[in-house]
Structure formats: C-alpha cells, structure tokens
Amino acid sequence: MQNIEIRRPKIEDIEELNCFFKMLVANTFAREGLAYMLDEIEDEIKSKKRYLKSDLDSNGEDRYFLIALDGEKVIGTIEYGPASQLINDLTNSELKELFEVGTVFVHPDYQKRGIGNKLLNAIYVTLKSKGVEEFCLDSGYTNSQKIWKKKFGEPDYLIKDFWGEGFDHMIWRVKVKDVLKCSRIL
C-alpha cells in the first residue's frame, strides 16, 4: 500500500470519479440490503456528482475533495463541505455552522487496508490547517455506523428507524484535536 497517492481531484478525474460514485453507492446499498431503493441510489449518486462539481467549480472553497489512487486508479474519496440539509433538519440546525465530512468511499477490493484511515487523516490535517476545530458526519448505513462508532463513540444524535424499521440514522459531532491525537500522522 506504499504506492497510494492522496491528492485533490482534477478536471480529468471527473469521468472516473462519477463511475466510482455509481459503483460504490450501488455496492453500499446492496451490502445494506437496500438494492431495491433505486430512486434513493440515483439521488445519492447525483448528490456525489454535484459535490464534486461544486469542489471543482469553486477550487475547493464550497466543497473540498481528496481522492486516493493506486497508480492511476481511483480507489477512495473523502470530502467536506457545509452540513447537509438532512443534518440540519435532524438536529434543528444545531450543527449548521460546522463542516460535514462525507463521501468516504473505499473501493471494495481495497477495504480493510487502511485507505479509509489515510483519507480521514488527510482530511483532519486539512481541516486543522484551515482553523476548523469541529466537524460533523452522519450515516444511515449500518456497516459504516459500526466503523464510526469505533472511531468516535456513540453518536450525538440517534434517529431511530429513520430509514425504516431497524435502519437508524446517526450523527456525530467531532473535535479535530481529539481525532488528531489518535492520528498516526502527527
């Protein structure tokens, strides 16, 4: 895994990243047992494409992406931007001043190899360098929720059965200094 490069996306990465989003969103919904939710899958893919466009159009001011590559192949993504409408709605806008870290995707062939941690560490350092002290993140995916609980503990907001019976939505509020203490980068 020494050849993994983490960098900002370029215009020439758009097509591959859009294909990556399509594959990862569909894969994630399938792993969650939600492959039948075709409209939601399409909405999620469109959202990721909009976020990427917003990043490239604003040179990282409105949204800020990092991508992980193995050679020329995109194998992971992460981004931050303003807290989503969903987060604002579910928290009565209590987190509206925070950045949201999201679009944390790692290609299935590269999962459990530390790629996600490398992307997270890189985004933590980026946020810290911009003077950001706190961020939030959310998840409705049960597999992802397990990972976030290990990293950040119990969520600050738990919305029971939000996505249907047994499918909760969780939101965390995270201090950058706390995650950097645990980071291998610093």
Give the total of beta strands. 7
Return the structural class. alpha+beta
Assign a percent range to the helix content.
Answer: 40-55%
Give the CA-based shape.
Answer: globular
**Rg from alpha-carbon coordinates:** 16 Å
Tell me what portion of residues adopts beta-strand conformation: 15-25%
In DSSP terms (H or I, runs of 4 or more residues), the helix count works out at: 6
What letter string, H or E per element, gives the SSE order? EHHEEHEHEHEEH
Low-confidence stretches: none
Sheet with most strands: 7 strands, mixed
Mean pLDDT: 92
Describe the structure.
This protein has helices at residues 14-31, 38-58, 85-90, 115-129, 142-152, 176-182, and strands spanning 4-7, 64-70, 73-82, 99-106, 134-139, 157-159, 169-175. The longest helix has 21 residues, at 38-58. The protein has 186 residues and is of the alpha+beta class.
Give the arrangement of secondary structure elements:
Elements: E1 4-7, H1 14-31, H2 38-58, E2 64-70, E3 73-82, H3 85-90, E4 99-106, H4 115-129, E5 134-139, H5 142-152, E6 157-159, E7 169-175, H6 176-182
Parallel strand pairs: 4-5
Antiparallel strand pairs: 1-2, 2-3, 3-4, 5-7, 6-7
At a glance:
The protein is of the alpha+beta class and 186 residues long. It contains 6 helices and 7 strands. Strands 1-2-3-4-5-7-6 form a 7-stranded mixed beta sheet, sandwiched between helices.
